[in-house]
């Protein structure tokens, strides 16, 4: 790290702000025939352009993200030593078809699972550095389908 970068991270004296990332999934909103979720990220990780940002994503985009991360892991099998890829909250037939997927209890359980998934991969020692994850969390006008 250059002296300039180190100086930017110092807050007081020799104290250096620790690196962290925290992701909150909130505000599930029905849009036509799907639910979109607000994703708010706060971080000091240098891989990100800003310290706080918000995007909206739908479940299918989370599926695309997980598949991409799974593929990246298959390219570097030794990365499994850092831990496995977290699962997405499951689907069940009653929620996939019909009105079950729009019930408040189902949406809340899915929201919690998506938040847990994102925090797991964003704090993972391998997935943390995958540019696709950075774009997923930061870029507002990108459709990942």
Radius of gyration: 17 Å
**Spans of 5+ residues with little confidence (pLDDT < 50)?**
1-8
Oligomer: single chain
What coarse outline follows from CA principal-axis ratios? globular
For the record, what is the CATH homologous superfamily label? Phox-like domain
CATH fold-level name: PX Domain
Number of strands: 3
Q: Which CATH architecture is right?
A: 2-Layer Sandwich
* Count of DSSP-assigned helices: 5
Supply the number of structural domains. 1
Distance between the termini: 37 Å
**Residue share in β-strands:** 15-25%
Helical residue percent band: 25-40%
Q: Give average pLDDT, whole number.
A: 86
Give the structural class: alpha+beta
**What order do the SSEs take from the amino end to the carboxyl end, as H and E?**
HEEEHHHH
Largest sheet properties: 3 strands, antiparallel
Order of strands in the sheet with most strands: 1-2-3
Q: What does the model show?
A:
The structure is a single chain. The chain is an alpha+beta fold and 145 residues long. The chain has one domain (3-138): Phox-like domain (PX Domain). It has 5 helices and 3 strands. It has helices spanning 3-9, 59-75, 93-96, 104-122, 131-138, and strands at 21-31, 34-43, 52-58. The protein has a 3-stranded antiparallel sheet with strand order 1-2-3. The protein is globular, with a radius of gyration of 17 Å. Residues 1-8 have low confidence and may be disordered. This is PX domain-containing protein.
